[in-house]
Design goal:
Radius of gyration: 32 Å
Strand order of the largest sheet: 12-14-13-15-16-17
Mean pLDDT: 86
Oligomer: single chain
Number of strands: 17
Distance between the termini: 66 Å
Strand content: 5-15%
Largest sheet: 6 strands, mixed
């Protein structure tokens, strides 16, 4: 069997949900932390096929079938290993690499990188509680961190001198450089992190793979991260995920905040499912990693313009990942505060209220589009509709995409058009009788396409379409015929009213030409002709 770089196989597993891949062939139902369905490898009526997303394997308690995302693809598609990888790569949207087999030298080098990062973390931890680390320790304690929190998250201090470059002299320079902890200068190696409060960055297994350093002297940027290495890719790494994994499963959701201090404070104050990106905007890789654990996500950002912009971007990224059982929400911290400050001033109750008041994905999209476009104008509404249409195309589940489209059409009608006092055809529309009103209410509630198509006319009738009406059992063609007939009758009534008014005006000395009077009569005759023809349309 050909052997591929483990990084590629790991990336496939990180990007693709085992439940999603298996769910394409096997209907699954969640029970506890596992998903269950009827085994595809033998005939059964009672589900004994279990899928564990967290551990990344499936197991059938009936026939004993067991494996991961790759073996499932091989066995169900009846393909070899390489073909299975290609199918999964296409599904994940990544390119297949050339066949590579890790050499013993490369394996040794990677183990060395992990070892270097672990030893560096230990050195930084020790220094935090020395005189040299006093500024860093005072700062983090001032942010409400206890010694227990400092120990759990393994915070440390990188000194002003070249600690790593000088202390790790017995390690191969290339290996040391490969970790990103040091760089090469004119006079040899020097430390990348100096005089920084250090936050170790862990992979999902809890191994130290990189660091984030916070400035202590007011210099910008406030945070610098290890540059990308063989172990660490910032766009694919989420801070705090190793601590949050179990809570994400237990709470059936994840919370995404903007920074690591916020994430830590949230975790220790009862929101253990909280994570944060590392000084960069959210990426598809971040969302893929979270959705692999759970598709219920709450984005918790600042309520200012930057936070709203970040939320809008997150919304666009998350749409391809949502399913019919997803619950994606948006919470905003207002008053110029962040989650850390809210927890300090109001405690867990205040933060819970912010989470409880979060907007659903569809409510956030609707609020965002109304704030971003001038929907009080026809042009603005067209722009908003085009934007919504392009965003909804990102949803991969076509049935779910359709439901979202229908929801937005309903909102467009009810909030953009129905509320407008349209002056249809520049005529006064007569009152609507009760039977016609109830019939139109029935049509609007049942045929959303017709409601959208005839929105301007329907809005002009000043009818409350939120009311209930009896089901007439009509099809869409019958419903449209009725709307057109009402529209023509309303127009006819207005023309006849205008004709009477002008004839009366001539009697009272007002000047109307014969041509004006005849033009109205011709219009009335034309409408009557259309009404007569409408009767014969099946």
């Amino acid at each position: 069997m050909a052997k591929y770089d483990n990084n590629f196989v790991d990336e496939l597993r990180a990007r693709l949900s085992l439940v999603d891949v298996i769910g394409r062939r096997v209907p699954l139902t969640k029970k506890g932390q596992n998903y269950w369905g009827c085994c595809p490898f033998h005939n059964e009526k009672t589900p004994s096929f279990s899928v564990n997303e967290e551990k990344g394997f499936y197991h059938c308690f009936g026939c004993g079938a067991h494996g991961d995302i790759i073996s499932f693809t091989m066995n169900t598609e009846h393909v070899e290993f390489k073909t299975a990888l290609q199918e999964l790569a296409d599904m994940a949207g990544i390119k297949m690499p050339t066949v590579q087999q890790k050499s013993p030298e490369r394996v040794a080098a990677e183990n060395s990188y992990f070892d270097i990062c672990e030893k560096a973390c230990s050195e930084y931890q020790k220094l935090l509680f020395t005189d040299a680390g006093a500024d860093a320790l005072n700062y983090i304690r001032g942010r409400g961190f206890t010694d227990e929190m400092i120990k759990k998250y393994r915070l440390g201090y990188a000194p002003k001198n070249n600690l790593i470059a000088n202390k790790f002299v017995d390690i191969k320079q290339n290996n040391l450089l490969a970790t990103g902890l040091v760089r090469r200068g004119d006079y040899g190696l020097y430390d990348f992190f100096r005089h920084k409060l250090m936050f170790p960055i862990f992979n999902p297994k809890g191994q130290v793979i990189a660091f984030s350093g916070r400035s202590l002297d007011g210099s910008e940027p406030k945070y610098i991260n290890t540059t990308d290495t063989e172990l660490f890719h910032k766009r694919q790494t989420i801070f705090g995920f190793n601590f949050a994994r179990e809570e994400i499963y237990r709470k059936n959701r994840s919370i995404v905040v903007e920074g690591q201090i916020d994430a830590i404070q949230m975790q220790v104050h009862g929101f253990g499912e909280t994570v944060a990106p590392l000084g960069t905007a959210l990426t598809e890789d971040h969302i893929a990693l979270l959705c692999k654990s759970n598709r219920n996500i709450i984005f918790c950002f600042d309520g200012d313009g930057a936070g709203q912009k970040a939320a809008a971007r997150a919304c666009g990224i998350v749409l391809p990942f949502i399913r019919d059982n997803s619950d994606v929400r948006f919470a905003f911290v207002t008053g110029g505060k962040d989650p850390d400050e809210v927890l300090k001033s109001g405690g867990t109750d205040a933060m819970n209220k912010i989470i409880d008041d979060s907007l659903s994905l569809i409510d956030f999209m609707w609020k965002n589009v109304n704030a971003s476009f001038l929907v009080s104008t026809p042009g603005g509404r067209v722009q908003a509709e085009k934007f919504l249409s392009s965003e909804l195309k990102k949803i991969t589940d076509k049935k779910l995409q359709y439901e979202y489209e229908q929801e937005f059409k309903s909102r467009e009608f009810n909030e953009w058009r129905k509320s407008k006092k349209s002056d249809v055809l520049n005529i006064k529309v007569p009152d609507t009788d009760l039977v016609t009103k109830n019939t139109l209410i029935y049509i609007v509630n049942k045929f959303e396409n017709l409601a959208s198509q005839y929105a301007e006319f329907l809005a002009s009738l000043n009818i409350s379409f939120d009311a209930d009406a009896p089901d007439l059992g009509w099809n869409e063609k019958q419903a449209e015929k009725f709307i057109v007939s009402v529209k023509l009758k309303k127009y006819l009534e207005s023309l006849e009213s205008e004709l009477k008014a002008k004839i009366a005006g001539r009697i009272n000395g007002e000047f109307y030409t014969n041509e004006e009077i005849q033009e109205l009569k011709d219009k009335i005759a034309g409408v009557n002709s259309k009404l007569e023809k409408l009767l014969y349309i099946e």
